[in-house]
């Protein structure tokens, strides 16, 4: 998936300002920029060390204290977002929110406080955004770079050239979670430092061989943890790099004394630096690094570029859909027919908004991928398609978008039941079903895998949907008409009234 440099954009934005909010496991970050032709100027930054990962309890739920800290932070952020169009603001949650259970109510409160939808993203997507932010902040010289980002709940590893990531992984080890796991009871001493180090080495075993085989020319570190470690060894390394020798000495000093060399670092950052140091030393040893260059840009910058790209022809999600079409050998001509008809139907009705999802875009992508499961089996291929889209790493898509996309593909044929969509609340389901209706009708109208010679008309009146086609066309397509008439019963099972009528030419 190309991650191209931002070129001059012809799109007229409602405002020149864009914002990115990163709800990280350790810190919440907000970045506000102004688009100035083909450059971005940073206008404002804000960071709160919420450490939401500390609020993850044994049963996977978030503590009340962690929720309160998060809501308070987002309420403060919201003040700076008031004059920026919501479409030009992106907010994402990472490892801690991915891992937390039963967060629906909390996310509703968080979105209400912030004023915009919050997407929970996968580790793969987190790594992609980290690399995008990095690659837009450095000089690209076609060299192969390793980028490492140690967060509060996970650590991302990306190998790429220029703007293109080639290898991405996210491991479940972070400075906050490791602090809780290894230093909460026993404090910082040689034994607990060793346990944290060995645990990190164990996690790295899963990627060590493939990364060493891939290779790189230079290694770069992002995130606040790595910058803070660079500050601690600045006396020896200057602050712009971290060498293996200096890192090993820092690790030994922390292990022996239980303290950092100096305390010119915020208290909350100090608390997680022993764990961060143990993780980074494991990375150095397992990936055979001699030094690490410190980078300034990370996920939030990547989120800015990704958002701007969505207003142009650089939407990463469109690249992902094209890649899936090629990977699963989808009949693109048929996909385009279904997509164009589905969008044509959708534009004739008014549906309820779906928070955080563009219904027109998600419908088009679902139409383009509705046969993705055919490569596995023709029998129940809609179920295979659901599994592929629900569980694959889809660049650019948040977890909720991916969930809606997968359910559209699963629901595009055969019987319907509300049990299939039990993860949706009533408001989401009410917005989802008209979109699904347009996809189902489009796939039926193109069963012969050929272009339509007529224009189908879809009308909605008080919740009742009526599809009309010319009588002459209906007479020539009795099998399609029979299938359309069956849709009345199918949609009746999910409390949607639908009928098909043939009208005089």
UniProtKB/TrEMBL annotation:
InterPro entries associated with the record: ATPase_NBD (IPR043129), GppA/Ppx_hydrolase (IPR050273), Ppx_GppA_C (IPR048950), Ppx_GppA_N (IPR003695), PyroPPase_GppA_Ppx (IPR030673)
Residues that span the membrane, as ranges: none
Keywords of the record: Hydrolase
GO MF annotation list: pyrophosphatase activity
Chain ranges of the Ppx/GppA phosphatase C-terminal domain: 317-487
Gene3D superfamilies, per database record: 3.30.420.40, Exopolyphosphatase. Domain 2, Hypothetical protein af1432
Highest taxon of source: Bacteria
Ppx/GppA phosphatase N-terminal domain ranges (all copies): 32-309
PANTHER family to which the protein is assigned, alphabetical: EXOPOLYPHOSPHATASE, RETROGRADE REGULATION PROTEIN 2
Protein name as it appears in the record: Ppx/GppA phosphatase
Protein source organism: Saccharophagus degradans (strain 2-40 / ATCC 43961 / DSM 17024)
